[in-house]
Amino acid sequence: MSDYPEAAAIKQAVDKAGHIVVLQADNPDADSLASALALEEIMGDWGKQVTLYCGVDIPAYLRYLPGSSRVTSELPKQFDLSIIVDTSSDSLLEQLEKSGQKGWLAAKPCIIIDHHATEPTIKFASITCVHKAVATTEVIYELSTQLGWQLNRTAAEFLAVGILSDSLGLTSEATIARSIHILAELVEKGVKLAELESARRDSMRREPELIHYKGRLLERVEFHDQNRIASVVIPYNEIVEFSPLYNPPMLVLDDMRLGKETRLAIAFKLYDEGKITAKIRANYGFGVADKLAERFGGGGHPYAAGFKLNDSRDFDQLKAECLSVASELLSGHEAGP
Ligand SMILES: [Mn+2]
């Protein structure tokens, strides 16, 4: 068991606060979401008001985690304490910076709970709880144990989800013996790993015809600019046929980004009457999606953006133009967070 020197200060700050905001960075993942939801469970049990914030939408693949819909991109006007989970990097709070809300955090007590080894670049935090662990939920478990915080079954499940996800099922290099011990302790508390895995898999289930359709879409993916950009085009008849079941681009955008050199994926939808939409996703380190979308009158976030055109322009020409702007933006963008 770990003995965190800042635990007493964390207890004091949390005990004093009535309304606590738990923040995830602009690249939410299962660990950050599970950390936020676990803290909400733990502190909710004490009667605290807890608001969950994330500057970007929680990705669809994480929405099976109960409570994920409570995550909002609006920082409340009033709160007593903020807790930033799963990041110590200032650059990952770009959305707060953009909306001018980062100052609100700096003006109130702020705790960072994280497991990343890098030196924290968030300078306004009053307490830093950053320790070597496979997941942030592992750090939260240690903290809870040390401070005697009760973990209800749901909280324990969230902690297990974070550990399993960030450790790739306890196989990643960062997995330490303690991570495995903690998972065992969570199982002792009643967590059923098979149940967690089944819930995760159920969230990926689709109508059987969508599985065939996904295959057709994947076959049509084109790679451009030395595989750096992947694109796919969805014609109107497919929008009509499949949209009621699932938004076609979302079936393949994540797979399109798995190409070895691929940095950007674009899915175009061609409606009748000349309407064209594009969904853009960028891989981590190549956040140019918003800039690309802006060039065509759209917008969004660095890693997820889109645009919509209604001026009946020639699609082939638009596609060529979009790919060329994308190449240009990628070339001008140095890899980095
Ligand atoms: Mn993590």
Structural description of this entry:
By secondary structure, this protein is α/β, with parallel strands linked by helices. The mean pLDDT is 93. Helix 2 packs antiparallel against helix 6, helix 5 runs antiparallel to helix 6 and helix 6 runs antiparallel to helix 7. A hairpin with a 5-residue loop joins strand 8 and strand 9. It folds into 2 domains: 196 residues, inorganic pyrophosphatase (n-terminal core) (Alpha-Beta Complex), CATH 3.90.1640.10; 124 residues, Roll (Diaminopimelate Epimerase, Chain A, domain 1), CATH 3.10.310.30. Bound molecules: manganese (II) ion (MN). The site of manganese (II) ion (MN) has 6 residues, from loops. The site of manganese (II) ion has 6 residues, from loops.
Largest sheet: 6 strands, mixed
Tally of extended strands? 11
Rg (C-alpha, Å): 22 Å
By CATH, the topology of the largest domain is inorganic pyrophosphatase (n-terminal core)
Q: Give the overall form.
A: globular
Mean pLDDT across all amino acids: 93
Total of DSSP H or I helical runs spanning 4+ residues: 13
Which strands sit side by side, in order, in the main sheet? 6-7-8-9-11-10
- Report the top-level CATH class of the largest domain: Alpha Beta
CATH architecture of the largest domain: Alpha-Beta Complex
Instruction: State the helical fraction.
Output: 40-55%
Q: What is the count of structural domains?
A: 2
N- to C-terminal distance: 33 Å
Q: Would you identify the CATH H-level superfamily of the largest domain?
A: inorganic pyrophosphatase (n-terminal core)
The stretches of 5 or more residues where confidence is low (pLDDT under 50) are none
